[in-house]
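FAQ
Q: What does a multi-component entry look like?
A: The components come first, one per line:
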Amino acid sequence: MTLLDVSGLTVRAAGGRALVTDLSFTVDSGERLGLIGESGSGKSLTTLAVLGLLPEGMTVTGSAVLAGTQVVGAPEKRLTALRGRDAAVVFQEPLTALDPLMRVGRQIAGPLARRTGLKGRALRDATYEALDRVRLPEPGRVARAFPHEISGGQRQRVALAAALACEPALLIADEPTTALDVSVQAEMLDLIDTLVREREMAVLFVSHDLAVVAKVTDRVLVMKDGRAVEEGAVRDIVGAPREAYTRDLVASARALESALDLRSAP
Amino acid sequence: MTTPTDLLATEPRAKRPTRRTSVTLTAGAVLTGLVALLALVSLLWLPYGPDDTSGGRLAGPGDGHLLGTDKLGRDLFTQLMTGSRIAFGAGLGSVAVAALIGVTLGVLAAFAQGWLDDTLSAFLDILIAFPTLLLAMLVVAARSATLGSAVLAIGLAQSAVVARLVRILVKRVLTQDYITAARTSGTSWPRTVAGHVLPNIWPTLVVNLALQFGLAVLAEAGLSYLGLGAPPPNASWGRMLQEAQATFTTAPAGALAPGVLLVLLVIGVNLIADGLRDVLDPAGRGRRS
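Then the predicted structure of the entire assembly, as C-alpha cells:
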C-alpha cells in the first residue's frame, strides 16, 4: 500500500526560483526510502512540503498524497490532524528543535497525550516508558531536565522519542545524526533502525551521507539541484551508479572508507 | 531492575535550573516593598482620617503629625499612605490593561500577513506617537476624571508599546525550529502559541511590563497633577505635589514627601526590571551546563 505518493512536486521561493523541480517518488507502508544529496539540493524542503510546513512565501505545485490525503493546498485544520499521526519528523539539530524553556518530559507528554488521551500518572509513566525505549538512562531525571541540561546525543534521543510518541505511519528523519558526535552517530542509527523495524514504520531518511543512508534504508533517491537524479535499490546504486553525480557520491564515500582501511592496516 | 517509577520514588526533588540571585533585584524589591507595605497598612490603619483637619493649617513636622499638615490641616503622612495605594492601583491597573490589549494585539499582528500586518503596524505606530496626555484628556472628556479613566488612558497608550514588542518577539520565536517541530507533531496553532510561543517571549515581556509599571506610576502622578487623575479628596501623590506648590517655600515637606516616595517607587521597580532581566535571560541561563 502506498503511504506517501509525491508526484510532480515543485517548490518555488518567493522570487519564483524553483528550489525543488518536478519531483516524484513513493514510499510504501513499512518501506524505507533514503533521500540523498548535497546541502541545498532541496531534500529538507521536500520533507517540509510533504507536511505542508514550508516557510512563508514559498509556493508548492504538484501533488503530495500522504495516507490518502492531498497535502498540497489542504486547509490548516486537516494538516494538523495529519501531522504526527501519519508522519512525524526528527530534525537535524536537536538543541534548536526542542523548546528551550520546556522540560523534556512535557515535550514528549504533549504528543503522547494527544494520541492516547492519557492523563496524570498514566501519562507520566508512558512518558518515562517512551524515554526508556530510546535507551535514555534515568528517564525520571531526564524528563525533568531542560534541553540545555542534557547532552547532544541525549537531546536527539528525546527528539526521537517525541516523534515516536506520535506512533506515525511514516517517520521522517532529516539528517538526524549530522549534528552528533561521530561516536554517538552509530548508536543513534542503530536505535532508529531497531525501533522502526519493531514498529514496521515507513521511513523517509534524509542525509548527505551515502554510508548513513545505506545503513538504514532499502531504496535511495539521489537529488541534485532540486531534481531527482537517480533512484534505485541501495545495492544497485552503490554497486553500479548510472549517473555522474551518483558516481561522485559513491566514489567519495569509498575514498573515505579506504582512507580508514589504509590507516588501520598494519 | 529499576523501573521508571522506582526512580521517581527514591529521587530527591527535581533540581530547578539554578536561579541566580541578583543584587539589583533584591534592592528593587526592598524599595518597592517599603512603598507596598505603606499601601497595605493604609488599608487597615491610618494615623488620621483622610478628612480630619484638626491639626491646623500647615503645621510643621512633629507634634503628633509625623510630616506636618497641608494647607487645609490634613495630616501629610496619612495622605502619603492613601497616595501609595493610588500609585500601586494605577501601576498595576495600567499594566494589566496594557498587557491584556498589548499581548492580544501583538500576537494577532505577528500572525497577520500582507496589508493586515501593515495596517496593524501603522495603527500601533500612530498610537505610540500620540501623546499620552492628549489621549488621557480624550478619555477623561469621554468619561470623567476618575482614577479609572487615568488607568484606562495610560494602559491604552502603553498597550501600543507592548503590542509592538510582542509582535517582534512572536515573529522571532515563530522562525525557531522548535515551533516547526511542534507543528510537525500535529500541535494546533492555539496550542503552539499557548505552550511554546508565550512562555518563550515571557522573560523579555515581563521585564518590559515592570518598566511600564514605573512609567504608569509617573504618568498617573502627572495626570493627577493636572487634575485629570483621581478626583479630590483622594490624595494622589501628583495632586499633593500640585497643592503644595504654592506653599513650597514655607512648608517644603508637603512637596518633598510625595516627590521622594514617587522617586523611590519608580527606582524600585526599575531595579526590579533590571534584576529580572539578569535572572530570566534565557541566554544566560542556558548553555552553561
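Q: Is there any commentary attached?
A: Sometimes. For this entry: The mean pLDDT of chain B is 84.
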